[in-house]
Amino acid sequence: MVEESFEKDNAEIALLLSVLFFHNTGNQEPRNLERIVRMNENFARNSLANADQYSIEKTALLINMIGTVYRDLAQNMSKAQEFHQLALDLSERYNLKNEKATSLHLLGIIHRYQKNLDKAQTCHEEAVELGRQIFSPKENGRVAAFLLNLAVVYNRLGEFRKALEIYQETLKLLREAYGSRDQRVARVLNTLSTCYYSLGKYHESVDALLEALSIHEEIHGDYHPNVAQTLYVLGFTYRAKGDLQKSLQMLSRSL
User: Fold this and answer.
1) How far is CA 44 from the centre of its chain?
2) Signal peptide span per the entry (predicted)?
3) pLDDT per residue over 66-108, tens digit each?
């Protein structure tokens, strides 16, 4: 069915089927994965070569999707970078601001994985700046995703105060977009706690972790990896505060 969609030049159906395939199989069928990636790649290159016959924006979207597949499933960062750069070039050529912001964001992630933190910072800063210009308040979740990855880079660079400011803004936007009890909010709280910890702000770190724990338990129940991981980090944070009794309680609960 995926092959038929490509043969009929139906990009939207092909995209959907490809996403479903990746979601359902992951790395379990590497031969099929390579086949689907190859079809996506051929279709994208053909679309790019015949730009007047296809939607340029959908082509840029497809090219970025191929890049994320190479990154997440194939673990091939050089190929992922190639496709995200191709999408960025296409977006700049045709002034596709949404896809340009997305391409910069995805390139930043690749540079971070490759430990090119300065390049990652530049890409993420440009993505955030552009995202603030083009996305409406209803799209705060997209800006939050851009901000989150910029904060991660600052954290890796040891610029914890800058990272802290951005994590806090990310939280604000996520709460506005999805509510205060969303899983995305909990994940950022977990990450924010490590930033507080690095700054020696153990009390604030504990508060962030306790809020994250409450959300994880509400969503997943008592027995879930997210709950266990948060309890584990809480145990070590309480120990850093000097509260050994609570540290032991949390570490015991995490088992």
Assistant:
1) 23
2) none
3) 888 888 876 889 989 999 999 999 899 889 999 999 999 999 9
Q: If DSSP states are collapsed to H, E and C, what string results for 150-171? A: HHHHHHHCCCHHHHHHHHHHHH
- Per CATH, the number for 167-254 is 1.25.40.10
- What is the token pair recorded at 94? 């045709």
- Rounded Cα distance between 215 and 69, Å, is 30
Separation of alpha carbons 153 and 109, rounded Å: 9
pTM, rounded to two decimals: 0.79
String of DSSP letters for 49-77:
HTGGGS-HHHHHHHHHHHHHHHHHTS--H
3-state secondary structure of 41: helix
Of residues 146 and 34, which shows the higher confidence score?
146
Question: How many angstroms separate the CA atoms of 98 and 134, rounded?
Answer: 7
> Are 80 and 67 spatial neighbours (Cβ–Cβ below 8 Å)?
yes
- The amino acid sitting at 204 is E
Burial class (CB in 10 A: 0-12, 13-18, 19+), 24: exposed
pLDDT single digits (tens) 106-146: 999 999 999 999 999 999 999 999 999 998 878 888 999 99
Domain boundaries, the chain: 167-254
Query: Buried b vs exposed e over 66-95: b needs ≥16 C-beta within 10 Å?
Result: bbbbbbebbeebebbbbbbbbbbebbeeee
Q: Are 153 and 121 in contact (CB under 8 A)?
A: yes
Lookup result for tokens 């899983």:
183
Which are the contacts of 188, defined by CB distance < 8 A and separation ≥ 6?
148, 167, 170, 171, 174
